[in-house]
Amino acid sequence: MTEVTTPADEAPVLEVNDLEVRFTSGRSTVYAVNDVSFTMRAGETLALVGESGSGKSTIAKAVVGLVEPASGEVLLRGEAQAGDRVRRDRATRGDIQMVFQNPVGSLNPFMTVEANIAEPLRNRGVAKAERAARVRELLTVVGLDADTLGPRKPGEISGGQAQRVSIARALASEPAVLIADEAVSALDVSVQATVLNVLRRVVDEEQVAMLFISHDLAVVRNVSDTVAVLHMGQLCEIGPTEDILAAPAHHYTAALRAAVPEPGVPLGDPGMTDADPPSPRIRPTGCSFRDRCLAATSRCAEVLPPLTMVGPERAVACHHPLDRDAVASAIPSVTAQGALA
Ligand SMILES: Nc1ncnc2c1ncn2[C@@H]1O[C@H](COP(=O)(O)OP(=O)(O)OP(=O)(O)O)[C@@H](O)[C@H]1O
Predict the structure, then answer these.
(1) Which SS3 state, helix, strand or coil, does residue 115 take?
(2) Ligand 1 centroid vs 34 CA: distance in angstroms?
(3) What are the b/e assignments for 123-150, b being 16+ CB within 10 Å?
(4) Where are its TM segments located (predicted)?
(5) Kind plus residue range of the DSSP H or E element containing 88
(6) From the CB of 56, is ligand 1 less than 6 Å away?
């Protein structure tokens, strides 16, 4: 399949190649992730976007080793992460860290903020004096005051502060890859912006590769370099965030894009039928979006559209991709250069 890589020259930190994940119980199988590939480099953020059930969290779980792929591979710094799960978990425990939707729930409520952040340092054998200094440093990285917040318990700080503590705790392991799974979805919009800023800074300063999972294309705009759009476990479209938001090539991306609020611009036509997505229990044939797509033809039901390059860094899996110029001119907030207003 077509390999889309980001422009930097360095070797990828994480490669996901032809990943397939299924959940089987009895005679029923859920086809959760179908032939998904992407590459991530240090200091870059890739956003996985799609509705509930599109397979985003399952990809994250396959990357950290919590689910075993049916086929395909996950490479961390070029090394396969397959095989013995226990061994793999141990090898990647520090290298890949996750930040979840519910920050308070992912911290130990009985330990202070400082102790929560210090725990992974202690597990890595960092000496006590050094630990204290590093905890202060990490709190500063996420923009929190060590003196006032360090001694508090997670229940005594706000949701946004707790999420920043979770990020600091994740960074304590010096991960190569940070997975943020709906990490700002539960926060107020004003707090979301602060946490997104922290994440952006962390990616840049600590040079981690961030896999940012969100159902919301509007959130992704502010944080990711690359967007990968998923529909029912299939990769619809992947490429630079700005280009994709300015002119989606896949009809599903265009539908998600139409729902992104723009100041002073009414929401666009949803651009898709109101048919339900297909059952994830049926082995996919053709394009998974076809029943919801206004441009679908019989070919879309018969032949799975291959992921095909449509620009130097862009690929789309669609037999009838949108004309990029036409889409750009149809979105009023997009300037002639394709930059978002
Ligand atoms: N442990 C499991 N057993 C059976 N099916 C599962 C399991 N985990 C996920 N699924 C199914 O796999 C598909 C993908 O789910 P996944 O949670 O990865 O989607 P998602 O895009 O992350 O959705 P959400 O935003 O709701 O978390 C769904 O059909 C889901 O019901």
Answers:
(1) helix
(2) 13
(3) eeebeeeebbebbbebbebbebebeebb
(4) none
(5) helix 85-92
(6) yes
The CA-CA-CA angle for residues 277, 48, 308, to 5°, reads 75
**Rounded CA separation 267/292 (Å):** 19
Take residue 304 and report the two structure tokens written for it.
């799975």
CB of 54 closer than 6 A to ligand 1? yes
CA of 22 to the centre of ligand 1 (A): 10
Model confidence pLDDT, tens digit, residues 119-128 = 999 998 999 9
Residue 168 is which amino acid?
Answer: A
Using CA positions, which residue lies closest to atom 9 of ligand 1?
58
The reported pTM is 0.88
User: End-to-end CA distance of the chain, in Å?
Assistant: 34
Q: What is the ipTM of this complex?
A: 0.98
User: What are the helix (H) ranges across 142-250?
Assistant: 146-149, 159-171, 189-206, 217-221, 241-246
Q: Is 103 a pocket residue for ligand 1 (Cβ < 6 Å)?
A: no
